[in-house]
Amino acid sequence: MSWGFLRDLLSGVNEYSTGIGRIWVAVVFIFRLLVYVAAAENIWKYEHDEFECNIKQPGCENVCFDHFFPVSHIRLWALQLIMVSTPSLLVVFHVAYRENREKHHNQKLYKSPGEIDGGLLCTYLISLILKTGFEIVFLVLFYKLYNGFKVPRLVKCDIRPCPNTVDCYISKPTEKMIFICFLVATSCLCIVLNLSELSYLIFKYSIKCYLKRYIKKHQ
């Protein structure tokens, strides 16, 4: 899979982001996307082939793997990266709409089409809420699917067609555990950044509206 489209999307959004938003883009691009492509993807590349059980009963190993890993970590991370990045398209589309509207009317309708105010502010806030929501949903999903964020060395499986309780071994559990902790930590950092930016924008424009009313009142 080519991640070029996601890189281009994040680069485009960076132009309209606040300072905190630019930090979020850097975290997603450097600490999540690059780590995913450069290292994490290779660690889980042969996870099914390297999953071994101490029995050669046909089908036993497959059903045990499916039970303990219902969805591949790496595919779920890919879906998470896409889902938390796409709400930023709302901002890009809104700016494009403003620019096209100015061209259609052939006059300057906004101080700057990319300035975060009015309708674009609402769009930006909605994108932050969606990004935060997706991050939390995927963290909960990871936790529920894999019974926590730990990777055990040994799992016991007694699902049919296994004739009895068999021992199954997960490859490179320590290495996988390190990357899981790292990616969960960066996901939590992104949540904090999104909430900080949301609070900052709400506070900033609340003060701005209050000052406007105060000036009008005294005039």
Word description of this protein:
With 219 residues, the chain is mainly alpha-helical. Helix content is 68%, strand content 5%. It has helices spanning 4-14, 19-43, 60-68, 73-85, 88-105, 118-145, 173-218, and strands at 52-53, 154-157, 166-169. The longest helix is centred in the C-terminal third of the chain and has 46 residues, at 173-218.
Outline of the structure:
With 219 residues, this protein is mainly alpha-helical. Helix content is 68%, strand content 5%. The longest helix has 46 residues, at 173-218.
Low-confidence stretches: none
Instruction: Identify the quaternary structure here.
Output: single chain
Give the strand content.
under 5%
What radius of gyration results from the CA coordinates? 23 Å
Give the overall average pLDDT.
81
Helix percentage: 55-70%
Largest sheet: 3 strands, antiparallel
Number of strands: 3
List the helices and strands and how they pair.
Layout: H1 4-14, H2 19-43, E1 52-53, H3 60-68, H4 73-85, H5 88-105, H6 118-145, E2 154-157, E3 166-169, H7 173-218
Antiparallel strand pairs: 1-3, 2-3
